[in-house]
Predict the 3D structure of the following.
Amino acid sequence: MLSPAMFPWILLTAAYLFTLGALGVLIRRNPLVVFMSIELMLNAVNLALVGYSSFLNSEEGQVFAFMVIVVAAAEVVVGLGLLTRVFSIGRELDVDDLDELKR
Amino acid sequence: MNTLLAVVLILSAISGLGVVFSRQAIYSALSLVLTVGLLAVVFLILNAQFLFVVQLIVYAGAVMVLFVFIIALLDPAAEERPRLTDPRLLLGILAIAGICTAVYVAASNGVTYDTHCATQSVTCMHAYTVGSLAMSGNPAADPYHTFGFPQNAVNQAGNVQTVANQLFHTYVLPFEITSLLLLVAAIGAVYLTRRTHTGIREEPGGERPSEEPR
């Protein structure tokens, strides 16, 4: 059985993973790793939502986390499609090189 | 159960470091698989069995397979580490420090737990947490005593039934909009990866003369 004193550690882990993902978005140059960092941030938010859901004895956090998972899956599909498109026209895999929309 | 939760949280924190600080993209992907799996275990401990299964299927299954496939397809080179004197890196670290401070302050204001206070009246509870808005004032419904695996009252009918009840009654409109989102994503992916007749695919990976780096 869990003690309620574990709940702050769940939130702190979620905040840590979120800031780690934000750091990855800011310092990494490979757009694939940037996408993975975004996934890490979304997972951190899911952890906080489920933690609150269990702590407050409410199931709505789990519904929201489900929505977040759906949005993350859609985002990965479109993002990786964009990456293959960019790579197929001969660009380097570097986010600094992707600063214009038109090729 | 407390020890298991602590161990899993610490392991997920460590493997999260591997996502951001691996030089090879494939190691980042494998670290992310580990992190996602550990968070799924956390969901299981927190009595969210439906999300545990969904996390394993969607993330560790579909999304990460897609990532690893794209990495194998594009074969990105290893990055060099950023120079510490890069002003953008310093700005980024400053921004991270700001975000981190804000999140930690918000979390610590929201999660202060006082055992003595929690057993008292509702007026006492108002003082220390955001979540007190969700309480009914009924001591039997006090959420601070139901945190954890065996006693989560909302899951009496089963976790899948509970989530489905919310999803198909209260949140049925967002659920339907989700289907529209997935449709748009599928159409977008097909559009982006289609084979064109403009000769783009005929010179794979080749540099175009007009597209030299500036």
About this structure: Residues 16 and 35 of chain B are 6 Å apart (CA to CA). Residues 157-195 of chain B form one domain.
